[in-house]
Structure formats: structure tokens, C-alpha cells
From TrEMBL:
Residues 6-76 form the Transcription regulator AsnC/Lrp ligand binding domain. GO terms for cellular component: cytosol. It comes from Gordonia rhizosphera NBRC 16068. This is Transcription regulator AsnC/Lrp ligand binding domain-containing protein. It comes from the Bacteria. GO terms for molecular function: sequence-specific DNA binding.
Amino acid sequence: MITAIVLIHADVHQIPETAQAVADIPGVSEVYSCAGDVDLIAKIKVRDHEQIAEVVTGRINRLPGVTHSATHIAFRSYSSSDVEGGFSIGEQ
């Protein structure tokens, strides 16, 4: 599976509706509303790169309320146990 993180700028008056519309798109596994530089962050999990294009440019970017997005492809995921294990190498 390919994971992509999509940073979404939305019309401030439509954030809850836009977030729900994004969450309802097949391939979107999670959507977070946040404070800071972006309004929403969506996590996408699909089988191939073509599906990322379908989800982002074909669906997310066409939603009412979405004003801009930036997509980041994940190369590797780390869990807390992976990170903790990396820092404990050589410790006894």
C-alpha cells in the first residue's frame, strides 16, 4: 500500500463539512482538523500512484470548500516501538 499525506487549505466557514466530505472519499483513511498552517490533514492509503491522483486531483481538490492542497508521499512509516528501538541500540 502507498500512503500519502494531504495538507488541505479550506474555506474557514466550511471546515467541518469539507472534512466530512474528504473522509467519505474511498482511499481516505483519516482526516484531522488542525490549527496552524493548514486546516485539514488527510491520510490516504491506496494500492498505486494512479489512485493517489484520482483521490487528490479527481476528488479532494474538486470539493466545495477546498482552496488548496499539497500532497506528500510517505516512503516509510515508523511506530513508537520502531523509534524507541532505534535509540536503545547498544544499551543494556
